[in-house]
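User: Some background: our group keeps a shared notebook of sequences we're curious about, and every so often someone picks one and asks for a predicted structure to add to the entry. Today it's my turn. The entry only has the sequence so far, pasted here. Could you supply the structure so I can complete it?
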Amino acid sequence: MSGEASRGATKDPGRVSVVLADDQALIRAGFAALIGSTPDLVVVAEAANGHEAVAAARSLRPDVVLMDVRMPGLDGLRATEQISGDPDLDGVHVLVLTTFEADDHVLAALRAGAAGFLGKDVGPAALLDALRTVAAGDSLLSPKATRSLIARYLATPMAASRDVTDTALAALTDREREVVGLVGHGLSNDQIAQRLVLSPATVKTHVNRAMAKVGARDRAQLVVLAYQTGLVRVGEG
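Assistant: Of course. Here's the predicted structure to add to the notebook entry:
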């Protein structure tokens, strides 16, 4: 692995473990320095391509793989598919990096099983918060522009042809459908709790049950499901 285990770090249950996957060593070094400056995050390995990212995920089982899209050999999207599709890596979340946030790669990444995405111009604090968020099983799909982009994509005939909507909706209770719809609008658990006059813990339970019933790995896939099933419709704010 060209990206050696960073600073000899090993996975620490008390910290969020991160694998950095980017073909540019300078970018990896910058992210590693930033992440290394915090007490609750640690870089356990670096990878210069998708093959190395998948290998690191399988050998180290990090909490998060911070994945670039364009890499030689196996690109970030196919690497994300391999990680997300491996049942042995169920606890490994992929956060994809893109050059442009309004990019088809964002949508492809969500289809591949990524928990979310960031633009490469992200600020330091936002990047650190994003890693913590994804490690906790949440996703980065709240900006209105992102929801609109997802909606436009899922409204295409290719997306609408997926034979999942009836089965998925039938598996959910009325309350779970309501919660999934609000997740699709980008609301956090606290915001949903406020909207429905429930406790955040109760909302989290509904979200987790909905994910289990429809086979979603994380909230990102619930957002996709919300659009696929019509719980959230194109153009809704």
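Suggested note for the entry: Confidence is low (pLDDT under 50) at residues 3-8. The first strand starts at residue 16 and ends at 21.
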